[in-house]
Amino acid sequence: MLAVLAAACSAPAAPQGRTVTAAWARSADSGATGGAYLTIVNADSVAVELVGASSPVATSVEMHESMQHDGMSHMMPRASVSIGARDSLVMAPGGLHVMLNQLTRALTAGDSLPLTLRFANGDSVLVNVPVRAP
User: How far apart (Å, rounded) are the C-alpha atoms in residues 131 and 109?
Assistant: First the structure.
């Protein structure tokens, strides 16, 4: 037993990277705009830059941020978002989110969609995003 424990402790550490949790998308009609929300955890020792996303269920995919200005709600596109070392980025309704433009099919509760997140260093993460009613 001690030999197994010693071997486990001396084994090289798994490479650090990014994981995605709490992913979900709103249900939406075909041709409409949909929204996806998720948390990206950067377990790496250096910051990473999220620079885009894509999905075969949308003509285009953009990162947007909702904000209040002079009592009005506005959305602004974001070309990139930095995620600090050993930090996380939360995308949620009313804040930063993924816009799925011109959906090529309806998104219905219980369904899911593939979403690829792209990072400045060339890495990408494929996420299976469940769809739920708003």
Answer: 5
